[in-house]
Amino acid sequence: MTEPRKEPGAGPLRVVVDLNRCQGYAQCCYAAPEHFELRGHEVLFYDPTPPAGKQAEIARAVQACPVRAISFDMGSVS
Amino acid sequence: MSPDEPGIVVVGASLAGLRGAEALRRGGYAGPLTLVGDEPHAPYDRPPLSKHVLAGELRPDATALPHLADLDATWRLGQPAVGLDRSARVLRLADGVELRYEKLLIATGAQARPWPVTDGSGPLPSGIHTLRSRDDAAALRIALAAGPKRVLIVGGGLIGCEAASCCRDLGLAVTLADPNPTPLARILGSLIGSVIVSCMNTAGVDFRPGTHVEAFEADASGRVCRARLKDGAAIETDCVIVALGATRDTSWLAEAGLNADAGGLTCDSACRALDSEGRPAPGLYAAGDVARCPSPFYGGRLVAFEHWGNAVAQAGHAARNMLANDDDQRAYRHLPSFWSSQFGINIKGVGLADGADAVAVVQGSRASRRFLAVYGREGRAIAAISFDQARWLPAYAERIEAGAAFPPILGATDQSIKDFGAPDFPEPRSR
Ligand SMILES: Cc1cc2nc3c(=O)[nH]c(=O)nc-3n(C[C@H](O)[C@H](O)[C@H](O)COP(=O)(O)OP(=O)(O)OC[C@H]3O[C@@H](n4cnc5c(N)ncnc54)[C@H](O)[C@@H]3O)c2cc1C
Ligand code: SF4
C-alpha cells in the first residue's frame, strides 16, 4: 500500500491544464515562459512538473489565464 | 464519526476517482474516504502520454495530477478490486482485504482493446504495444527511442493518429493502417477525416485506407517482423502499435448483479449504477470512462464517453448526488467535449458527431486546415469540430446545447457556406 504523501516543496509542483477550456490566449506563456509554450496556431505545451521553486511563476500563470484553465499543487514525494 | 464507520470508497484512482474524491470533500463530506487503484502510481494524466511522452519531451512519470482539495484519504494503490457483495456492502481486493462501504464510486475507466488472440494463432510476437497507461507509454517510448525501421500503427482513431504524428516528429518511418477511407472516420466522418489524410501526406505518414491487418509474424527471436493483411499483402514492421480503441474491464462486477459489460457499467441519468433489473443500486455510483449513461442531448442514448472533460465533470456530478438525499438526485447534463493535438494542429470537438446526416464548414476552409465544421441531424445542430479555430467553438457549443437549427447562424459573422455535404461515416461495427 502506497500513500502519496503531501510534503509541500518536497517534490516538483504538479500542473494540469484543462485543454477543453483553454482558448490559446497565451497569457500563461507571457507569465511563465519557461513552463508554457504556444506551438503552431494554438497548441499549448506545458510543463506538468515545474521545479518546486517555480511556484510564484506558476501562480502568475494561473492568475493570468482568462478562462481559469490551469490548476496546480505543491507536489508530493511519491 | 465512529472509527469503524464504513464511509465512502472510490474504486479506480485516476482522473475520475481523484476528482470525485475531491468533490466529496469539497461538498462537505467529512467521513472516512478510501481510494482503491490497481495501478501502483498516484493518479496521473493520460493525454500527454500519446503526445509529448511518446515524442520524448516529457518523462512518462511526469504527468502526476495535482490534488485540488485536501483529501485526507486512505490510499490502496496497486490493489485491484476483484469482487463486490452489494447486500453486505463489501468490496473485495486482490490481496483478500474486504472493505466495507456506505457508498461506492466506481471509476475504473477503460483499458486499451488488446489485439485479439485467437485459438491456434500462437503467442503474440514481442514488439507489439498498446497505449493506455504510464507503463505502456514508458515501454513504447523505449521501443521508439531504439529506432525501429518501420512503425506500424493499427487503427486510425485519436490515439493512433497522435502516435503517428509523434513517430514523424521523431523521424521514424510509420505506416498507419485503417479499414476506413480516412482516419478518425468513426468519430468525425471521412469528409473531415480527409483533412487528416492530407496532414499525414505532408508529414510523410504512409496512410493505408481500407486495410485490414489480419495477423503478425515473428522472426526467429520471436520479435514481430511483418503484418499480414486480409488481401494477402504484407507490411514489414519491427514495432507495432495496436490502437483499436478501448474496452471496460468490468469482469470484477460479474457476480454483483449489475448491468455491466465491456461497453461499460449502465447508469441512470443521476450517475447511479443500475442493477440487472434496471433499478438504481443503493449507494452505488459511477463516473468517467466506465460509466454508460443516458445522454439528454442525444435522445437518452446510452453512451460511455471516453474524454477527459467528461471524467472530471461526471465525477463531480456523481459526488454531488452521493451526498444528496434520495429525492434530490440531479440529472447529469453534459455536452461531451474533447481535444487532440496532432500534426501541429489543435483539434477540439463538442457533441457526438456520429449519427449526423450533414456537415458544413462554417468558418475557414478544409484546404487551409483551419476551420470549424458543424454536424447536423434532421435539421438540428448536434456537434462541432474545430481545427485551429478553437475560439469559435464555445459559441457553437451553446447553439448545440440549445438544440439550434442546422446549420446554425452566428450573429455578426458573414457565413456563406460553400463546403457542405454528407459526413460519410462508416457502417456501425458489427461486434
Ligand atoms: C493515451 C491517451 C490519450 C488521451 N488523450 C486525450 C485527449 O487528448 N483529450 C481527451 O479529452 N481525452 C483523452 N484521453 C482520455 C482520457 O484520458 C480519459 O477519458 C480519462 O483518463 C478517463 O478517466 P477515468 O478516471 O474515468 O479512467 P482511467 O483514466 O482509465 O482510470 C481508471 C483507473 O482505474 C483503474 N482500475 C481499473 N480496474 C480496476 C479495479 N478492478 N480495481 C482498481 N482499480 C481499477 C485503472 O487501472 C485506472 O488507473 C486519452 C486517453 C489515453 C489513454
Ligand atoms: S492563458 Fe489559459 S487560455 Fe491562454 S493559453 Fe494559457 S491556459 Fe490556455
Indicate the mean pLDDT of chain B: 95
Give the domain tally of chain B: 3
CATH C-level name of the largest domain in chain B? Alpha Beta
| pLDDT averaged over residues of chain A | 87
Note the run of SSEs of chain A as H and E.
EHEEHE
Q: For the largest beta sheet of chain B, what order do the strands appear in spatially?
A: 3-2-1-7-21-20
Low-confidence segments of chain A, ≥5 residues, pLDDT <50?
Answer: 1-9
Strand order of the largest sheet of chain A: 1-4
Distance between the termini of chain B: 49 Å
**How would you sum up the global shape of chain A?**
globular
Distance between the termini of chain A: 12 Å
In the CATH scheme, what's the topology name of chain A? Alpha-Beta Plaits
Task: Give a structural overview.
Chain B: One of its GO terms (molecular function) is oxidoreductase activity, acting on NAD(P)H. Chain B: Its cofactor is FAD. Chain B: This is Pyridine nucleotide-disulfide oxidoreductase. Chain A has 78 residues and is of the alpha+beta class. Chain A is 19% helix and 21% strand. In chain A, the strands form two sheets. A two-stranded antiparallel ribbon of chain A has the order 1-4. In chain A, strands 2-3 form a two-stranded antiparallel sheet. Chain A has a single domain, classed as Alpha-Beta Plaits. The radius of gyration of chain A is 13 Å and the shape is globular. Chain A is built from two helices and four strands. Chain B has 431 residues and is of the alpha/beta class. Chain B folds into three domains: 187 residues, 3-Layer(bba) Sandwich (FAD/NAD(P)-binding domain), CATH 3.50.50; 117 residues, 3-Layer(bba) Sandwich (FAD/NAD(P)-binding domain); 78 residues, 2-Layer Sandwich (Enolase-like, domain 1). Chain B is 18% helix and 30% strand. Chain B has seven helices and 29 strands. Chain B has a six-stranded mixed sheet with strand order 3-2-1-7-21-20, with helices on one face. A six-stranded antiparallel sheet of chain B has the order 24-25-28-27-26-29. In chain B, helix 1 packs parallel to helix 6. The longest helix of chain B is centred in the C-terminal third of the chain and has 16 residues. The radius of gyration of chain B is 22 Å and the shape is globular. The model of chain B has no long low-confidence stretch (mean pLDDT 95). The interface between A and B is medium-sized, with 31 and 37 residues. Iron/sulfur cluster binds next to helix 1 of chain A.
